[in-house]
Amino acid sequence: PYTTLFRSVTAPTFNFTPASPAINQDVVFTVQQTPGTPPGGTYAWDFGDRTSGTGSPASHAYTVGGSYTVTLRYTNDAGLTASTSRQVTVSSTLPSGSASFTLPCRA
Q1: Residues linked to residue 91 through DSSP beta bridges, in sequence order
Q2: Contact assessment for residue 70 and residue 53, using Cβ atoms and an 8 Å cutoff
Q3: Contact 70, 46 (CB under 8 A)
Q4: Strand arrangement of the beta sheet that strand 66-75 belongs to
Q5: Once rounded to an integer, what is the mean pLDDT over residues 72-85?
Q6: pTM (2 d.p.)
């Protein structure tokens, strides 16, 4: 048997689809493993709108349009962590194929 010591960890990058999401549309975040990073560990997401998720892939739908900073935090099996962030811009319009209704108020 042998022991491998990890003194630092490199944060993996991530992609998301669709590239230009709309409100209420599922955005799928997928980790792109960095070469040389050992397998294992955990992925924690901060979606930038006070919500979070775990794992890869992770899915999230934004309810308000705007620009969000999404942060991925990777923790390896030795307990070392690294983070990376990307901007996601969410359109204020509904995705194509969605229905929008305006109902009159009755007094």
Answers
A1: 22
A2: no
A3: yes
A4: 52-54, 42-46, 66-75, 81-90
A5: 92
A6: 0.78
Residue 20 CB partners (closer than 8 Å, separation 6+): 89, 91
Residues for the chain: how many in total?
107
Residue at token pair 């739908």: 61
Closest CA to 60 of 92, 22, 93, 29: 29
User: Nearest CA to 14 among 73, 90, 95?
Assistant: 73
pLDDT band at 40; cut points 50, 70, 90: confident
Task: Please answer whether residues 82 and 11 qualify as being in contact, where contact means their C-beta atoms are separated by less than 8 angstroms.
Answer: yes
Query: Looking at this protein, which amino acid is placed at residue 6?
Result: F
The CA distance from 27 to 25, in Å, is: 6
Which residue has tokens 């990890």?
Answer: 6
